[in-house]
Amino acid sequence: MDKFEKYYTYLMSFIIWIIISGWSIVLYIARISGLWFDNMVGVMIILAAVSGIFLAISQTKPKVLSSVFILFLLYIIVSTISFITTSAFGTNYWTMKVSIFYVNVFLVGIFALFISQYFFDERIIGYLSFISIIITMLFSYESTLKITYASYSRVGSEGNPIALSYSVAFSFAFLAWECLVHRNLMLFLFIGLLGSLSVFILGTRQTVFAYIFQIIILYFAYFKKKRIASKKFHIISSKKTSYDARKLFLNLFIIVMLIFACFVFYNMKEISETINLMWSSSIQRWNVFVNEGYSDSGRIFFNRVALDTWVNSPFLGSFAYENQGRWAHQLVIDLLSQVGLLGTMVFTILWIIALYKAVLCIFSKKIFETTKIFIASVLISMTMISLTAATTLTSANFIFCLIYIANSSLEN
Q: Would you indicate the residue range of the signal peptide (predicted)?
């Protein structure tokens, strides 16, 4: 690998990380440092997707499956018709929603189509995942103590703050996956448990279950393959994890831990107060789960509003109907209400294809020769969230994983 190809791989891996989980980490840092600006997430995703498409076209020959491309294009066309025919057409909220759709679905989907045969560098993603977790720990106490009133700790998006739990969960899951690749089962269990505790404290309930489910998927894949892989199991990554690379990572880890230890010692009182606040906030949210059930009264109400909206316009839906933020907390219901039965059918076919290939990926004999297993596990875990307690209609990471896996070759 020449120097240019190496930098190309690093840059493409960074772009993929931004889209899957890095955007919220960058946004978090920007908010705390005062560098945040309106529509920062949109700008990040646009830059990532456009630069990724340019790199993919200039350096590789994209292999796009015609069936997946046709379904994706058909979904975009049907959705566009829904945008034009909705009663919210032309409003400020409609403009914002349409812009988000074309960035997070169309641009990110095209990027995923072009690089679905590309395997990113797991070292880069591993370093970024590790740094993401450390950064979150370092800054959590400050942002939490600045909240004058909050029933739970959330930091993140442009308008309504969202949980960092997705990014933290994906970061822990990727590190756990790396442990399995290198046959370190004890470290895998440690990271898995630490990740569960971290996501639990963040107080986003559905993400805890999705993360645990993702960890189980990764372990199941390991369990199925360890007998047939034998001694060759970890040779795949031996070149990528040379002695120098391991030494560099170890030194980096020691330096970060020393800095973190000094930081904790200097801010012991504030950190203790933060932990107590975040823990009590988390317990409060989990009490809602225990007392009211997984779908609390707010979600049930929003889902009913969405279904009523769909009944009034069954074929094309009523895009951007939820001007007051009362969107459905379930993807299928949200699809029906936003793009109608036609858009839902096309998207569901594409979704089923992706899930089918994700399962094949888990059972593939080449599972540890590629990085597809991680993206497949993200897709399955986000599917679990989408079907139970949230909508991922315009979530860039969900769309990326879905199109990436759907357009992947079965032999991979």
A: none
| H/E run at residue 362 | helix 331-363
Dihedral of the CA atoms 204, 210, 211, 212 (nearest 10)?
Answer: 120
Burial of 314 by CB count in 10 Å (0-12 exposed, 13-18 middle, 19+ buried)? Answer: exposed
Neighbours of 258 (CB within 10 A): 10
> Is the pLDDT reported for residue 238 higher than 50?
no
Give the global pTM. Answer: 0.82
Sign of CA dihedral 155, 120, 44, 327: negative
Burial class (CB in 10 A: 0-12, 13-18, 19+), 231: exposed
Instruction: Indicate the pLDDT class of residue 142, thresholds 50, 70 and 90.
Output: low
Nearest CA to 220 among 266, 277, 173, 180? 180
Q: Are 204 and 153 in contact (CB under 8 A)?
A: no
In the chain, domain spans:
3-406
Q: CA–CA separation, 391 vs 402, rounded Å?
A: 14
Q: How far apart are CA 86 and CA 165, in angstroms?
A: 33
Residue 237: pLDDT over 60:
no
Residue with tokens 């994700």: 358
* Sign of the C-alpha dihedral computed for residues 144, 42, 380 and 376 taken in this order: negative
Model confidence band, residue 240 (pLDDT cutoffs 50, 70, 90)? very low
